[in-house]
Write a structure and sequence with these properties.
By secondary structure, the chain is of the alpha/beta class. It contains 14 helices and twelve strands. The chain is about 45% helix and about 25% strand.
Length: about 375
């Protein structure tokens, strides 16, 4: 007979004798049998389990990037929004399906998780449960060295209190280089830190003129975020917060920079921070002509919208155009991608030729996300 059937029969026999208050000699395995049956009964009772733990789950898709896998971004965004509304006591983060993530996808995911953490429900008295949970059994593939490195460097595991989640090979640390900064203040020291980190690995940004173009583009985006992107109190967001990330992939020989905030987005930012005449122009140009979010981004990049003023009276809106100039001055091919609302704008500069592409993503993201990719192997001179 099956050993589990024997154990089950013994448990039933002992339980009935106990109920009748009869004396009997317990088997040496009684405690083990008792614990096994109690655990089995507990796991089978789904209503009891759900009521007690109230767990929810977010499953990250296999590929997260804004170029080839927009459907996955849409799925993740929708899932997180639903979890915020549900406000359960704890949420499991599952990464076992994740195979690769782009730099802009990484920053976007960080900002979404940040909102989840700020959307904390009221805990029951005496409850010690954390809002987000990470289970190593459902964690990332331990053989995916790039993914392990990127998540480790952004502080993902530290956020969950995991001191040593995965071992990263020394060879991996010689292939990938990543630095991330976040704050609610627009300070140039953060730009300098990321720039110097990349320069330590590759001498690309040592040229003073290139440095100036780079600093202008990033500082413009940063100042816009702090001064204009948070014009109203938005739930689950820290006012003025932004993320800046620099990444050098030595094996593929390209540099990436990405900047993200989760404010109100470019459309609202421009309308709110414009004077009366400019607002009238915007209503006529944008609203009456049914300009999409991608159209607005293109108009900003090409300097077709009137400038709006910053807190110190300085004109804003030059950052996107500055990067186009930066792209033309360097001796390498590069790409720029900007997302805000449902708009997705791409600009490419290859071998002295410019290419623009606009698309509607089919869903909206909060704030805006900008990324630049420079291909060091494709020198144009």
């Amino acid at each position: 007979m099956n050993s589990r059937k024997i154990i089950r029969r013994l448990y039933i026999k002992y339980s009935r004798l106990t109920e009748k208050h009869k004396k009997f000699t317990r088997s040496a395995k009684w405690k083990k049998i008792q614990k096994y049956e109690q655990r089995k009964r507990y796991n089978c009772n789904k209503e009891h389990t759900n009521k007690k733990h109230n767990h929810d789950m977010i499953v990250f898709p296999n590929y997260i990037d804004f170029e080839k896998n927009l459907k996955n971004i849409q799925f993740l965004t929708k899932d997180i929004r639903e979890k915020i509304k549900r406000n359960n006591y704890s949420i499991n983060i599952e990464l076992n399906q994740l195979r690769d993530i782009s730099l802009n996808g990484l920053l976007y995911s960080i900002s979404e998780i940040d909102m989840l953490q700020k959307a904390k429900p009221i805990k029951k008295p005496g409850s010690n449960s954390k809002r987000l949970r990470y289970n190593k059994k459902h964690g990332i593939d331990k053989n995916n060295e790039k993914l392990k490195y990127m998540l480790y460097k952004i502080g993902f595991f530290k956020n969950f209190g995991i001191k040593k989640p995965y071992k990263i090979k020394e060879k991996t640390k010689e292939k990938y280089f990543l630095s991330i900064k976040t704050s609610v203040f627009a300070e140039t020291k953060y730009i300098a830190d990321v720039r110097d980190f990349i320069t330590d690995q590759i001498k690309f940004l040592e040229d003073k003129e290139i440095q100036d173009y780079f600093d202008d583009a990033i500082s413009e985006a940063m100042a816009n975020s702090v001064e204009h992107a948070y014009i109203e109190e938005t739930p689950y967001r820290k006012k003025g917060k932004w993320w800046l990330c620099g990444h050098y992939d030595k094996s593929a020989n390209f540099i990436e920079f990405s900047f993200r905030d989760y404010g109100v987005g470019l459309r609202k930012t421009i309308e709110y921070n414009s004077n009366g005449k400019i607002k009238a122009f915007l209503r006529q140009t944008i609203n009456k002509l049914n300009k999409t979010d991608a159209d607005i981004i293109k108009m900003l990049v090409n300097d077709e919208l009137p400038k709006y003023k910053g807190k110190q009276g300085r004109a804003r809106g030059y950052g996107f155009k500055t990067f186009k100039t930066f792209a033309k001055k360097i001796l390498y091919n590069c790409e720029m991608q900007i997302m805000s609302g449902s708009g997705n704008y791409q600009y490419k500069y290859y071998n002295g030729k410019e290419y623009e592409n606009m698309a509607d993503m089919g869903f909206k993201i909060d704030g805006f996300l900008i990324s630049w990719k420079i291909f060091m192997k494709d020198k144009k001179c």
